[in-house]
Amino acid sequence: MALMPVADALSAILAGAEPLPEETVALDAAYHRVLARDVAALRTQPPQAMSAMDGYAVRSADGPDVGVRLKVIGEVAAGRPFEKTVGEGEAVRIFTGGVIPAGADAVIIQEDTAVDGNTITITEAARAGRHIRPAGIDFRQGDVLLARGARLADRDLSLAAGMNYPELSVRRRPKVAILATGDELVMPGSTPGPGQIVYSNGYALRALARAEGAETIDLGIAADTVEATKQGIRRARDSGADILITTGGASVGDHDLVKQSLEAEGVAMAFWRIAMRPGKPMMHGRLGAMRVIGLPGNPVSSYVCGFLFLVPLIRSLSGRADIHHIAETALFGRNVGANDLREDYLRARLEVRADGALIATPVDHQDSSLLGNLAAARGLVIRAPFAPAALAGSPCEILRLPT
């Protein structure tokens, strides 16, 4: 079977990945959730013209020059408007956030006045509109300020509250179940026996999924038998998982049983093996509504494939408008050799040079088992199939890894 190009594999994984149903959540629970609907302001902010400073509300016609004396006829505080009209020669003491009283069209800040009993002398000329926040300067009722598909940031919650929303309609979080396979795996904190290794893949994958807003289900480690693997697949299905991630058992050895087990459980396989490094033995299929991504067992391959394929799938199911990773241009920090037929994703350190140039230096050892180099990397350098050798300082494309 020919190796599937990376772009085709991603298209297959995302095909038909429609946003999950919506649900309504309290505003405090909406952080980093994805909006299911546009959000239009329910009110105008501010609803009336308000003072931006502490001072005196006046008529600009009364204070074109310094030295003018005005009679103070009342006071305005935030939430306590002045009910009368400011007339000729009059002023109203006003505080920040106070409603501008009828008749006034300017504010003289308190530092620009001299107070004598119930009169003030202005030491700065009044100008119409000065130190006044007009009604609706922030937003007006009906303005759409938060768009469907946006992932809500902390500032968005404040805006939604200001628009008078106690709750919001968001997409249901995707559920991602992760099943490891392999007799050689033991949990962290154990003492590995001969030939055993400490299981690490699930920790990065679950963190990656949670960072994208998904719920995660840890299905543990399945033994290298078809029945144990099938049991794990059934548990994922029964848990209502939208995505099942398997790690390990995706190659062609006698003990690599994941593909066989998936097919035995009725998974319709879309592809197996892609033209990329690391991650060639990745697979994808569906079991009813549940999407399955079979990741390689090597930790670097597992993570890179999770970053490249799982993240966009979670975003798509979440209803996000920004599904795909955005590539940036950088400069190679060292020479690199020519590439072969597979698209390469080189783990690289990133730094910004004094002149502002972004430098991407691939780590020396790109072996897909090296967790130390993966943790040290801040980006992936994308090398197209059959890319020629490149010298240090030449341009390259990178994807930033999460930090």
TrEMBL record:
Start and end residues of each MoaB/Mog domain: 177-316
Entry's Gene Ontology cellular component terms: cytosol
Cofactor(s) needed by this chain: Mg(2+)
SMART domains, sorted: MoCF_biosynth (SM00852)
Sorted UniProt keywords: Magnesium, Metal-binding, Molybdenum, Molybdenum cofactor biosynthesis, Transferase
Pathway(s) annotated for this protein in UniProt: Cofactor biosynthesis; molybdopterin biosynthesis
InterPro entries referenced in this protein's UniProt entry, alphabetically: MoaB/Mog-like_dom_sf, MoaB/Mog_dom, MoeA-like, MoeA_C_domain_IV, MoeA_C_domain_IV_sf, MoeA_linker/N, MoeA_linker/N_sf
Function according to Swiss-Prot or TrEMBL: Catalyzes the insertion of molybdate into adenylated molybdopterin with the concomitant release of AMP.
Similarity-based family: Belongs to the MoeA family.
Protein name: Molybdopterin molybdenumtransferase
Species name: Bradyrhizobium erythrophlei
